[in-house]
Amino acid sequence: MKLEFMSKSQNEAFARIVVASFASQLDPTIEELADVKTAVSEAVTNAIIHGYDGREGIVRIECSINDHTIEIVVEDEGKGIEDIEMARQPLYTSKPELERSGMGFTVMETFMDELEIESQKDSGTKIRMVKRFGRYED
Ligand SMILES: Nc1ncnc2c1ncn2[C@@H]1O[C@H](COP(=O)(O)OP(=O)(O)O)[C@@H](O)[C@H]1O
Ligand SMILES: [Mg+2]
């Protein structure tokens, strides 16, 4: 599944719902679905607020399903992250003036099974997240 939308905050809820609808074919629990929604919401909000910094741009999402696993890639062509290790630290935010909590990456890491961040200054950021559903079944 591929999705493209403008970097407007109104689209964050849209993106979250589309990914949740796509994920629902794996028959997730309500909690698993809530985890995916929260992680997507954090990644998309980051692309809009940090990546494009209020400017207009395109946010891309790609999702794929394999067995009981969903892979979600959220990509922007915004300003990029200079120091990924620092950005991943709990409570680190480059926008304390917006009362950001600095917990976005920590939330993605906690709610998903895998989190990879690829980024290049001035060319954009790509977040890849994986979650396995029904871990207690088999
Ligand atoms: N898509 C992105 N483009 C550029 N910078 C980003 C992006 N996502 C995250 N960052 C950087 O990583 C920092 C940490 O992100 P996060 O943990 O979500 O905290 P917060 O969004 O509250 O600042 C951000 O403050 C920002 O500097
Ligand atoms: Mg954030």
Automatic annotation (TrEMBL):
Top EC class, one word: transferase
GO BP of this protein: asexual sporulation; negative regulation of sporulation resulting in formation of a cellular spore; sporulation resulting in formation of a cellular spore
SMART domains (alphabetical): HATPase_c
InterPro entries the record matches: Anti-sigma-factor_SerPK, Anti-sigma_F, HATPase_C_sf, HATPase_dom
Reaction equations catalysed: L-threonyl-[protein] + ATP = O-phospho-L-threonyl-[protein] + ADP + H(+); L-seryl-[protein] + ATP = O-phospho-L-seryl-[protein] + ADP + H(+)
EC number annotated for this UniProt entry: 2.7.11.1
SUPFAM superfamilies on file: ATPase domain of HSP90 chaperone/DNA topoisomerase II/histidine kinase
Pfam families: HATPase_c_2 (PF13581)
General function of this protein: Binds to sigma F and blocks its ability to form an RNA polymerase holoenzyme (E-sigma F). Phosphorylates SpoIIAA on a serine residue. This phosphorylation may enable SpoIIAA to act as an anti-anti-sigma factor that counteracts SpoIIAB and thus releases sigma F from inhibition.
Protein name per the record: Anti-sigma F factor
